From TrEMBL:
Protein name: Uridylate kinase
EC number from the UniProt entry: 2.7.4.14
Chain segments carrying region LID: 252-262
Binding site residues for a ribonucleoside 5'-phosphate: 165, 187-189, 215-218, 222, 259, 270
UniProt subunit comment: Monomer.
InterPro entries: Adenylat/UMP-CMP_kin, Adenylat_kinase_CS, P-loop_NTPase, UMP_CMP_kinase
Keyword Calcium found: no
Coiled coil: none
Source organism phylogeny: Eukaryota, Fungi, Fungi incertae sedis, Zoopagomycota, Kickxellomycotina
Region (Disordered) residue spans: 34-58
Catalysis: reaction(s): UMP + ATP = UDP + ADP
Length: 334
């Protein structure tokens, strides 16, 4: 009785061993059914040696060519699918959301200029005004020289950057946050806002015939929009200055200016915007023969003296007295 019980136990144990052995050999058998048999001596492949160029692995057939358990073709096909999925779905979607954002910004901007009625705007003699754009890299001396031109030639000085900063600070402004973001990032605020502010500022000075518009237009779209909706500039003053000097000046100015964009990160972004977007505007005006180039190197007095001489010449050319007929300034500093 005891013996037969022991025998049963032995039989049961051997049955378990058989089952265990079957479980182990099953995948090997299965793999042999679908691939050419590996030689007896070859080591059993495992997930870390699979796909490596060991002789046994190679001769083992399909399984041994897998990469981390996947067939290379499957990987290639998935990557291709992912790539085309990105190009066909994700990229257009991202472009669409960017466009939506731009349209939202433009819509907001349409409201700008509401301080004058459409009739008042239409009746204002923008075309009769002498508009001079003052351009150059950030920190090139646009504001400094503009301030002196105001007292010598009777211009009204409108700094686009200052007008935007004033608008940003106005507690009820709906553009405050938007403007703050664009300025900090060294980007160009949607042109409808800036043009609206400039047009309002010109209309605030109906007595003046001369306007210096400083730091605008900053890209070709702005330039065209201003010409189409306000008026054409008669001349462009371009303060030419190497980037190394601009950087030095801006970092120095940053110690006291309190401006959100006079720090190294914003300065780099502003330089990029200047080279990519603003410099082409100067080139386009140069082709029209409108640009007066002034080197910003030298003392402040020397730079201004050069500017003043060019301005005297310009007024003679257009048959006007250089002496001021009115003076005011809506801008403060460069
Ligand atoms: N800005 C703009 N549109 C303009 C003028 C200025 O978006 O037509 C923004 C832009 O982000 C720019 C910032 O205002 O970097 C400062 O302009 P500002 O003219 O004050 O700079 P500056 O060239 O005098 O250092
Ligand atoms: Mg300025």
């Amino acid at each position: 009785m005891l013996a037969s019980f022991r025998n049963t136990k032995v039989m049961l144990r051997s049955a378990q061993q058989v089952r265990a052995a079957t479980a182990l050999t099953k995948p090997i058998l299965a793999s042999r059914l679908y691939s050419s048999p590996a030689p007896q001596s070859s080591p059993k492949p495992n997930q870390f040696t699979m796909g490596q160029s060991s002789g046994g692995g190679k001769k083992g057939g399909g399984r041994s060519n897998l990469i981390f358990g996947f067939h290379p073709f499957a990987i290639f096909a998935s990557l291709t699918l992912l790539g085309s999925g990105y190009l066909m779905i994700v990229k257009p979607f991202l472009q669409w959301t960017d466009k939506q954002k731009e349209e939202r910004d433009d819509k907001k901007a349409e409201v700008e200029g509401a301080s004058y009625t459409a009739e008042q705007i239409a009746a204002f003699p923008f075309d009769k005004k002498t508009v001079v754009f003052v351009l150059g890299g950030p920190g090139s001396g646009k504001g400094t020289n503009s301030a002196r031109l105001v007292s010598d030639f009777g211009f009204v000085h409108l700094s686009a950057g200052d007008l935007l900063r004033e608008e940003q600070k106005r507690p009820v402004s709906q553009y405050g946050e938007l403007i703050a973001h664009y300025i900090r990032e060294g980007l160009i605020v949607p042109h409808e806002i800036t043009i609206g502010l400039l047009r309002n500022a010109m209309m605030d000075h109906p007595e003046s015939d001369r306007f210096l518009i400083d730091g605008f237009p900053r890209n070709l779209v702005q330039a065209k929009a201003f010409e189409d909706t306000v008026c054409k500039a008669k001349k462009v003053l371009y303060f030419e200055c190497p980037e190394s000097i601009l950087l030095e000046r801006l970092l120095d100015r940053g110690k006291t200016s309190g401006r959100s964009d006079d720090n190294i990160e914003s300065i780099k972004k502003r330089f990029r915007t200047y080279v990519n977007d603003s410099k082409p505007v100067i080139d386009a005006f140069a082709e029209q023969g409108k640009v007066i180039t002034i080197s910003c190197q030298g003392t402040m007095d020397a730079v201004y003296k050069n500017t003043e001489e060019h301005m005297n010449k310009f007024f003679k050319e257009i048959g006007q007295e250089p002496t001021p007929s009115a003076s005011a300034s809506a801008g403060k500093k460069d």
